[in-house]
Amino acid sequence: MNTQTPLPAPGAPLQHYVSIAPFDLQSVEAMTPEQSKVFQASQLRLMWWKFRRHRLALVSGLFLAVLYFGILICEFLAPYNLHTRNMDYIYSPPQRVHLFHDGQFVGPFVYGRRMTLDMDTLKRNYVDKQDDVQRIRFFCKGDSYRFWGLFEGDRHFVCPAENGQLFLAGTDRLGRDVFSRIIYGARISMTIGLVGISFSFLLGIVIGGLAGYHGGIFDLIVQRIIEVLQSIPSIPLWLALAAIMPITWSPILIYFGITVILGLLDWTGLARAVRSKLLALREEDYVLAAQLMGASSSRIIRRHLIPGFMSHLIATATISIPGMILGETALSFLGLGLRAPITSWGILLTEARSVSVIAFYPWLLLPMLPVILVILAFNFLGDGLRDAADPYK
């Protein structure tokens, strides 16, 4: 049986099998609802879908968001004022929070303490008084403070009992609550990375972008400057630049001085990475098309070249911010960074520079814990953002 389609007769018009209806740009009739949702999604939405599949990065982002929100209201969150001294409880160890007393549910509370002095070692020993139940209060009145140095207030999220104590992370040599000082110190330590990375990115993208796009003598000079700066050991350079800041400067000027120093020392690696990327991307056809259409160099770099390696920039930022936090912590720990009355995690760690202090009062090392958690969170967040923004995945 012959199943072949017969050929048309010579001279006969051919039959058309293509629709001659006008093409509808918005037509998605051949797509399922799921395919249509992906097809019409914006680039930011696609990035968000990829990012939220990275569970560790998502948790890290939420953790950092909570911390950055907390530094806005640290006066409200801290149980005590930054400078409150409890002279009867010097070097008091952390108190445990309990829920049950004598088998009955009481709610969150701590036991009162009694101090005895060891005359052989002159060490203060604290013993819980099991009959002194001190319930923790919430949304209560406590130490007065100036919110952001502007408004008077005395409301706190958590407070000790009336005439009681609440030292969740112990106290230091002046009887100041370490937990409250960690909360206050987060405002400086976590913002110094953001301010420093702003300087670093501004210099790195502008200088590296111009060097990679134009090349020539400017590129040669920039590369020699970068090589000189990178050949200098970073820690001695930090120490030298921090030491030249006048001791008469106010704490705010010292704060911005440290951020500028960290930003000026961190831009070289980013500038070299931007230069290498632009050297490769400037030869693409779309760059030539933009040049023929009269686009300026700044527009080509900003709108066409930088988005091509945005994932690299995101990864660099999330690595640089923890590096700047560690830089400020190291300078302050060595006594060459921020100084009192400013409080940062590095300044808090200066209390634990002595081996004997660490041996007798190990809770003074607790400010190291948020430093570790923040650095890990930034690294995990950077991994997720890099994968989400990578155009080649």
TrEMBL record:
Keywords: Membrane, Transmembrane, Transmembrane helix, Transport. This is ABC transporter permease. The keyword Ribonucleoprotein does not apply. The lineage of its organism: Bacteria, Pseudomonadati, Pseudomonadota, Alphaproteobacteria, Hyphomicrobiales. Belongs to the binding-protein-dependent transport system permease family. It comes from Mesorhizobium abyssinicae. The chain crosses the membrane at residues 56-78, 188-213, 253-274, 305-325, 360-381. Pfam families: BPD_transp_1, OppC_N. PANTHER family: OLIGOPEPTIDE ABC TRANSPORTER, PERMEASE PROTEIN, OPPC IN A BINDING PROTEIN-DEPENDENT TRANSPORT SYSTEM.
